[in-house]
Amino acid sequence: MTEETVQPLIEFKNVSLDYGETKVLKKVDLEIEEGKFYTLLGPSGSGKSTILSLISGRLQPTGGDILIEGKNVNSLPSNQRKVNTVFQNYALFPNMNVYDNVAFGPSIKGFSKKKIDQLVKSMLKLVKLDDFSDREISEISGGQQQRVAIARALANQPKVLLLDEPLSALDYKLRKEMQSELRELQQRLGITFIFVTHDQEEALAMSDWIFVINDGKVEQSGSPVDIYDEPINHFVANFIGEANIVPGVMKEDYLVSFAGKDFKNVDAGMRTNERVEVVIRPEDLDIVVPSRGKLQVTIEDQSFRGDSYEITAIDDAGNEWAVQATNPAKIGQRRGLKFDPEDIHIMRLNESEEDFDARLESYEGED
Ligand SMILES: Nc1ncnc2c1ncn2[C@@H]1O[C@H](COP(=O)(O)OP(=O)(O)OP(=O)(O)O)[C@@H](O)[C@H]1O
Q: What are the binding positions for ATP in this chain?
């Protein structure tokens, strides 16, 4: 039986964008399905907003193809795409009240007054601003402005909502609140959200699927859990959460050597004695008495994080380990580090997802 393939809502095939000599996007492939929450996560300048501009039609690619519902839209104007964007600065009309801001899109489309009214009221209800219709934009808070911007975009009834760092102007608490509100809104509406952020915590908390973008390329894509637990390379491991990354050698299947010792692990399929990078997350390390530790360390530093202590320890081979611990430690003390085989994650050196797959295929072909 063949599995039915779902046509992606949006596809990027080998999409490049150059500004003269500057290559901003380098042969990007993406697939976006209907009804999910996607996040483009990457550092400043990596090309996230450029990808949104290509989806919305504000920019055209210099190479490759962009497809929406299977049709090439490389040169389809923005206003003919069922896509709307919520910008970082909200871009609200300051001279209009809340109601008129939301009514703007539907009025341009020539809908009847009654239909516009219904639409605006339901959108304002959706973002919990039904009592704020008559307020001027200057009379509402940042978080409320953010909601108006979302209601305004949704009033255009898009298939896809693009959100370009929409929470970055909010304070920590409001930002957290809006994260769950946005997530809930997306689930309720069932439309596709593509959210841009450089905040990994935000991406992990909100998304069904994350694209990690770096230097105009997709470094890795996957569910938040996949990306956190199985980062494909040094960049992703470092960018997504805190990671201890030390050099190692895969001696054989399920046996890795690092910090001068051999450890059982759960990875297989690499060459004998292949050089690798070993990743262990700070929360997967426990500080114990030296005799119970798999590695012996000296406590170098510690800082209080509110709900935990971040401890820095140095092993006898000179590797530095960040440990997230519930109890404080004493600087200068000799301790042990404990971890389980499944907490050891192995990364091949400088390997892209494509190279990794190609190598895996050739490995499987050798049987
Ligand atoms: N008109 C332009 N000419 C030349 N380079 C440009 C132009 N517009 C953008 N760039 C470059 O393209 C790169 C990607 O920009 P983009 O805005 O997509 O990044 P980003 O990941 O969204 O960053 P941020 O998180 O800071 O918004 C940047 O290095 C930027 O300097």
A: 42-49
